[in-house]
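Hey, sorry to bother you again with one of my protein questions. I've been puzzling over a protein and I'd love to understand its fold better. Take your time with it, there's no hurry, and the full record follows here:
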Amino acid sequence: MLLLSTAYLAPVQYYAHLAKADEALIDIHEHYLKQTYRNRCIIAGPDGPVALSIPLEKASSHAEIRDLRISDHGAWRHHHWNAIRSAYGHSPFFEYYADDFLPFYDKPAGFLIDYNEALQRLICSLLDIDTRTSFTSAFIHPEGEYTDLRATISPRCPYTEEPAEHPIHFHPQPYYQVFQQRLGFLPNLSIIDLLFNMGPEGLITLKKSLKD
C-alpha cells in the first residue's frame, strides 16, 4: 500500500507511483509543512518553472492537514488560472480539458484536503487511473508495511534521491512540452503539464517512468 501526502496538482512523480499502486492512503493527520506540494505546484511558464501556492488560513506547523482551510487572500484563484492558461493555452489538450478545471478557480474553496482530493479524482478520471484511495484515520509512523512517499515527493527532495528500499523508482520519461525548444525538457512538473501536453496518452508516460 502506498502512503502519500495530500498534494495540489501533484508532480508527475506522485501520479506515476499512484498509477502503479493497488491502493493508496492519503495522510490527513500529518502536521503542515511549508513549501511542499501540499499546497504548491510547479508548472512550465514561458520563461521557466513557475511555482503556484495556495494561501491557507492560520497555517502553522502544529496544525493537522485536515484542519487547514484555504484563504481567498490575494485573488490566488484568478492568478493561478491566468498562469495555467498562459503556460498551456497553446498546448494540444488545454481547450479539451479547460472546462473540467475552470470550476476549481471560479469560486472560493473550503478545506485544502477536500480541494486537493477533488482535483485528484478529476485527474485520475482523465488519465484512467483506477487506484483505490482513502484518507488515514490517524497519523501513521514511517515504520510499517507501507511504501511511504510523504517526505520523498517534495520540492526539497530531488526525485533522483528516492530511498533505495523503495521497490520501484521514478525515472522521468521525456514527452512533448510547449516551451521545450526554448527551455529544454523540464522533468517532474505538475501533472497538468503532462495532461495538457499529452492528453490520455499521459498514462503511458507515467507507467514508463517507474523502473525496478
The radius of gyration is 16 Å. The CA atoms of residues 85 and 116 lie 19 Å apart. DSSP finds seven helices and ten strands in the chain. The chain has a mean pLDDT of 93.
